[in-house]
Amino acid sequence: ITQVLYSGTQENLIKQQLILGIGGVKLFAKLGMTPSVYHINEGRPAFAHWQLIRMFMDDHGMSYDEAREAAIAKTVYTNHTLVAAGNQSYPPELIKMYSEYYANKMGISNDTLIESGIEENGQFSVTRFALNTSRKANGVSSLHTDLSKQLWPQYNWVNVTNGVHRGTWQAPDIQKNLHSDE
After folding, report:
1. pTM for the whole structure
2. What is the pLDDT of residue 159?
3. How far apart are CA 166 and CA 33, in angstroms?
4. DSSP, residue by residue, 26-54
5. Residue 160: which of 148, 174, 177 has the closest Cα?
6. What is the pLDDT of residue 174?
7. Any bridge partners for residue 128, and if so which?
8. Sign of torsion, CA 92 94 95 96?
């Protein structure tokens, strides 16, 4: 399922997203790392939310509601595209095939676990799920953020413009050559 990213069947896309999100949180734990913030880049790793809830419930004895709020407090979301292809939606029955294990472990219903991603049309939106399970959202330019606020006005949007800081990302030899008078 990882040989081709962002394409394939809906089920393969969901599996990729599950591995990225849940596997990412598990990898940090295995490495002994405790991030202060988890960054959900696009919706793709959004299922990290389920693993964060489990972690808070298992490690800190929190209730589902307490763990859900703790997971939200540690998560920020970046949306990179407003086109539909970058904001996937799936039939909830397909999501439930994979969420049932987590719902059972958390002692909640499958519907409760996925409700944060359900849109008005009944589909599970990964973008809506990411927005509803993050404390803050950002666009990648001023215009993008403004358009995101129009599409999803109920969320806490900020602007973070993509860019590179030359002083830390550019090799010293290149910096020297760019700034020489030769």
Report:
1. 0.85
2. 87
3. 28
4. HHHHHTT---S-EEEESSTTTTHHHHHHH
5. 148
6. 75
7. none
8. positive
Residue type, 7: S
Rounded Cα gap, residues 51 and 33, in angstroms: 15
Amino acid making up residue 98: Y
Cβ neighbors of 131 (< 8 A, separation 6 or more) are 77, 137, 152, 155
Query: Which residue type sits at 117?
Result: G
Task: Tell how strand 75-78 and strand 38-41 pair up.
Answer: parallel
Residue at 2: amino acid letter: T
Instruction: Give counts: helices (H), strands (E), the chain.
Output: 9, 6
What pLDDT digit, counting tens, does each position of 124-180 carry? 999 999 999 999 999 988 899 999 999 999 998 998 876 667 677 777 777 777 665
Amino acid at 160: V
How far is the C-alpha of 12 from the C-alpha of 17, rounded, in Å? 9
pLDDT of residue 6: 67
89/125 Cα distance (integer angstroms): 4
Mean pLDDT of the chain: 90
Give Cβ neighbours of residue 115 (< 8 Å, ≥ 6 apart): none
